[in-house]
Structures are given as structure tokens and as C-alpha cells.
Amino acid sequence: MMRLFVALPLPVDARAQLSAVQSGLVGGRWIDPQNMHLTLRFIGDVPEPDARDLSLALSEIHAPAFDLSLSGIGHFDRRGNVHSVWARVGKCDGLTHLQAKIESVVVRAGYAPEQRKFTPHITLARLKDTPLERIGPWLEDAGVLSVPPFPVPEFALFQSQLGHGGAKYTELAAYLLIKFAE
Ligand code: ATP
Ligand code: MG
Question: Which residue minimizes the CA distance to atom 29 of ligand 1?
């Protein structure tokens, strides 16, 4: 079986800017800048031949390229206990369009529809259920985060191999977005 997800890789400059806020959080596990990405669709475990079929289906997507910017920090919590903190993604119609296309291709390929609303984010740290109050000061400091617009030329299918030091991601295939001359 292969554990798969579809995501946007991030340029090295953007990852460097994100890594600048990765300090001063206790009880957090920082995401290695090498591993930073924007998840578009989590697929989960599939048999290897299905991974190839899915990859081919994704290759049929034609969608326009776009620019993304990042600004501010968000978090996911369960009843006030924070389990991840992430960079906010600036509103982007191109991103919304691409995610909708991917979702429809994935569902057409036979996977169950995603139930959760799409919240584009780039995870910076995983926390061990930490009360929101405890990370308030960090959220405030890191909230100044601002990464100016950068071009997104492609999306990709990744394999995730879960391990002790965190997951290892491998890019299985990349799909070019269409760049139209200005
Ligand atoms: P670990 O689970 O060891 O902390 P990870 O979450 O980075 O590592 P995966 O669980 O394989 O690795 O997840 C790969 C990507 O898919 C991550 O961006 C993760 O946030 C996202 N993801 C994982 N599970 C789901 C899910 N059920 N729904 C939506 N996105 C998910
Ligand atoms: Mg996970």
C-alpha cells in the first residue's frame, strides 16, 4: 500500500521565510522546511496500481497557474487544545479552482468525497494538545508573518511514509499548471 496526498510544493524562498517564525514554542514539533507543503487532497492508503491510475487521472487536469501569498498564523484545536499551527494562505481564486478540479477528479476515480471544508494552510508545527492560552504570545509574535506573492507552477502527488522522526514525503509525479503570457 502507498499513503498518498496531493499538494503544492513550495519554493525554497517561501520555505525559508516560513522557517523564520519556527522558534519559541514549547511542546511543539517543527515541520522541517524541506517538508513544507500545501495539502490539496489527502488520499490515504491505496494499492500501488491504484496510485498509478490516480496519477494518470490527475495528469488530465488543465488549470491555470497562479500566485500565492502567505500572511498571518492560524491554528487547529480540539476544544481549546491546539494540535497544529500554520501559515495562512491569501485568498486565491486560482487555488480554489485547482482544489475543486482535483476533488472532482479524485471522486471520479472512485475515492470518497472529502467531508471537511477546504482550509488552505501550511503546517509549521504539530503540538501535543496545548491550551490555546499557552501559545497566545507566540501566535501574536508569529502573526506578523508575511510572504509576498510567489508563482505556483505545478502541483504534485506525494507518497507519505510515516516514521518516528515524522513522515517522509516523496514526490511521485508533478503536474504543470498553465501559464498564460501577460
Ligand atoms: P504525521 O502524521 O506523522 O504527523 P504528516 O501528518 O505530515 O505526519 P500524513 O499523515 O501522511 O503525514 O499526512 C500528509 C499530509 O496530508 C499532511 O499535510 C497532513 O496534514 C494531511 N492529512 C493527513 N491526514 C489527513 C486527513 N484525514 N484529512 C486531510 N488532510 C490530511
Ligand atoms: Mg498526519
Answer: 42
Mean confidence (pLDDT) of the chain: 97
Mean of the pLDDT values across residues 125-132?
Answer: 94
CA nearest ligand 1 atom 23, residue: 42
Q: Which residues pair with 126 in a beta bridge?
A: 29, 84
> Number of H helices and number of E strands within the chain?
4, 9
| Residues annotated catalytic, as ranges | 37, 121
- Distance, CA 84 to ligand 2 centroid (Å)? 11
Among the bound ligands, name the one nearest to the CA of residue 6.
Answer: 1
Domains in the chain (CATH in brackets) are 2-176 (3.90.1140.10)
State pLDDT tens for residues 1-30: 999 999 999 999 999 999 999 999 988 899
- pLDDT attached to residue 90: 98
Half-sphere exposure at residue 16, Cβ-oriented, CA atoms within 13 angstroms: 4
